[in-house]
Amino acid sequence: MQKKYKAYFIDLDGTLYRGKEKIPAAARFIARLQAAGIPFLVLTNNTTQTPETVARNLTANYDMKIAPENVYTAGLATADYLKRLNLGKKVYAIGELGLKQAILNQGFSFDEYRPDYVVVGLDWDVTYRKFEKATLAIQRGAKFIGTNADTNLPNERGLVPGAGSVIALVERSTQQKATYVGKPEPIMLEAALAHFGLDKSEAIMVGDNYNTDIMAGINTGVDTLLVYTGYSKPADIEQVAVKPTYEVENLDQWEV
Question: At which of 178, 203, 224 does a domain end?
Fold first, then answer.
């Protein structure tokens, strides 16, 4: 017997689409949530894109009417986390536009030399000089934040370096571990709950990857729905100690 939930947090790749391939059941699932008036956020560890870009892609290419307000990136979650920490207003960030725009939108300014925070995410043009500035600022006492721990990202060329690989270099050079924000850490999901003003018992995390999406729910105490349209397979889940709350072959099988 499944519960009724007041809000849904939903993964992207493998859950709402597979690479460039549409998942029709996912588009129908989003339409059913919208018809029922149930709030949802699409949660992505991708910090390179703005919510507007993510929403436009889903709407144009995957048959979903998604607004930017429905998108919550690890970049937005990182900026929200900095605001909650309230340690100062100056940031040195290694990352792309999606991350930097989110930080600026929360009223922070960038400072290479005396920042209160060093934030490291995926940066397609990362250089030794950027690593050097980040390392020295952390050594001077800046709080070290990592957007997410994904070591690799799949693309048409193979598994390319992800944000976690960039962050790992700064961890090595400073001998300090970053505080990670994105899935599977609870910071991002806790911020998403706060966005709706809900208790963790009132929302559910939907995803295809046990190690990121489902573990984010488990680490936060939020119920989870694993959909077998992407990364994790039933044989994988037989091996895990803590099972997802629910499992479905596709999202047509789920009643909202």
Answer: 178
Q: Look up the CATH number of the domain holding residue 227.
A: 3.40.50.1000
123 is catalytic: no
pLDDT value at 1 more than 80? no
Domain count, the chain: 2
Tens-place pLDDT, residues 121-134? 999 999 999 999 99
The answer to whether 223 is annotated as binding is no
- Residue 213 annotated in ligand binding: no
What pTM did the predictor assign?
Answer: 0.94
| Predicted local confidence at residue 152, as pLDDT | 87
- How far lies 157's CA from each of 49, 160, 209, 235, in Å? 20, 8, 21, 27
Cβ atoms of 170 and 144 within 8 Å: the answer is yes
- Looking at the chain, the whole-number percentage of residues with pLDDT higher than 70 is 100
Any catalytic annotation for residue 252? no
